[in-house]
Structure formats: structure tokens, C-alpha cells
Amino acid sequence: MTARSIRDPFGRPLGPPALLSREERVELLREIADALDAGRMPSRYAGKYLAGALREWLRGDGDLERLLGVRPSKGSHKRPATVLRQQERDAMVLRFAARFVSDRAAVLVLRGERSCPDELVPLRDEIAVRGAPKSSSGITKARRRVSRHRDERASCTVKP
Questions:
Q1: Helix locations, 13-120, DSSP H
Q2: What angle do CA 50, 45, 155 make, to 5 degrees?
Q3: pLDDT tens sequence across 101-137
Q4: What angle do CA 70, 65, 75 make, to 5 degrees?
Q5: Is residue 49 within 8 Å of 19, Cβ to Cβ?
Q6: I need a surface site. Which of 75, 119, 148, 151 has the fewest CB within 10 A?
Q7: What is the DSSP letter of 122?
Q8: Three-class SS state of 160
């Protein structure tokens, strides 16, 4: 989220979706898809965001990706699917690392240098399939990305 966006005490955006970061808009679209897939209505905010972009697109006002605000910047290869995969992978890595005394201990298990607890084997295997980092610095970077996302979602500051 940009520094200009405003959030309520529960972390829900109050300003227009145009003030959200690209990653947050991708997350909003994922939330909409999850709600619809489960037979629920998305939140009012999410519904208005999607409906506004679809109306503009139906009027012929441009590319849907641009109207939704999820188009990667010029030269970027970070498509919305890539953003979601990275968020999911980071969350898995941190869930795995949290079960150990240190990131270093988690890394030794990820590298196969120490045995993995039976209950973590499926998570370790999924992490390996997704190409997650097998280093302490990789875990630290995942933690920073997740922390930055949380900090941005909780932010209630406004900058002109």
C-alpha cells in the first residue's frame, strides 16, 4: 500500500483502490475469487472495486489489467500470478521456520542436513517443489516481504 492510503483499525482500506499498491490489488482480486468460489459475496469494498473496473472495460475504456491496476510496470516480469505465488511461498517458508529454534536450524532441515519432524515433511516437500529459499538470508527476505505487507496493511498514515 502506498503511504497515502488510509486503513480502519481492522486493516481494511478506506480510500479508493487507486491508492492501494499493485500487490494489494492482486490480493484483493484473490479475495474476490475465493469468496465467489465459496459461494459468498465479496466485501462491499472489493465488489465496488471490481464492478468499477468492469464497467469501464465494458464501455471500451481500456485494458482490464490496467483498469484493475494489476498490470506490471514496463519491463517487469512480475505478473499477478507471480505476486500470489511469492506471497504463498513466503507464508509457507515462515510457517516452516517458525517451528524451529532459529532460521539456521530450519535451513539445515530444508537442505537435508538434519532430519525433518514427521509432521513437517509435507510442508518441507511443498516448499521444495515451489523453489523456496534454502538459506537463512532467503528466510529473512521472506520475513521482510511478509512484514512489509503487514505493515502496509496496518498503516493509517496519509501523505500529501
A1: 22-37, 44-58, 64-68, 80-97, 103-110
A2: 115
A3: 899 999 999 998 999 999 999 999 999 898 888 888 8
A4: 65
A5: no
A6: 75
A7: H
A8: coil
Beta partners for 7? 13
Hey, what's the cell of 61?
475504456
pLDDT tens, 6-22? 777 877 777 788 788 88
H, E, C per residue of 54-70 = HHHHHCCCCCHHHHHCC
Residue closest to 72 by CA, chosen among 39, 26, 32, 113: 26
Q: Report the run of H or E that residue 136 belongs to, with start and end.
A: helix 136-154
The whole-angstrom separation of Cα 159 and Cα 2 is: 9
Cα 42 to the center of its chain, rounded Å: 18
What are the distances in angstroms from CA 120 to CA 45, 93, 123, 142? 37, 11, 5, 19
DSSP letter for 9, please: T
